[in-house]
Design a protein that fits this description.
mainly alpha, 61% helix, 11% strand
């Protein structure tokens, strides 16, 4: 959930920054001192920091998924036919054989 919250915050700040970029472009680039430029600069710094936090949260999520995945290495692919046909399980370890099971 940390990644999702960080991602949502980054998207919100990114949207705000794009809005400010449009406002600066509309007022012209010859205006040096404006409230929009100060806010845009602050939003750009915030966006950089939020990207770092989001990537850190994504790394934590990847580690957690890897830990859970290591316990669930029974099958990589489960293919279920919609009409109740055969189920195909492909083993995670390449050395293991493919197991086919007919649905009852």
């Amino acid at each position: 959930m940390q990644w999702h919250a960080a991602h949502a915050r980054r998207l919100a700040v990114g949207t705000d920054k794009r809005r400010l970029d449009k406002a600066i472009k509309a007022e012209g680039f010859d205006v040096v001192f404006s409230a929009a430029r100060a806010q845009q600069s602050k939003a750009a710094r915030q966006l950089t920091e939020l990207k770092r936090k989001e990537l850190a949260a994504l790394r934590q999520l990847a580690k957690a998924c890897a830990a859970v995945r290591s316990r669930l290495d029974t099958a990589d692919v489960i293919d279920v036919d919609a009409d109740g046909g055969p189920v195909l399980l492909i083993a995670a370890d390449v050395g293991q054989s493919i197991v086919k099971w007919e649905a009852a």
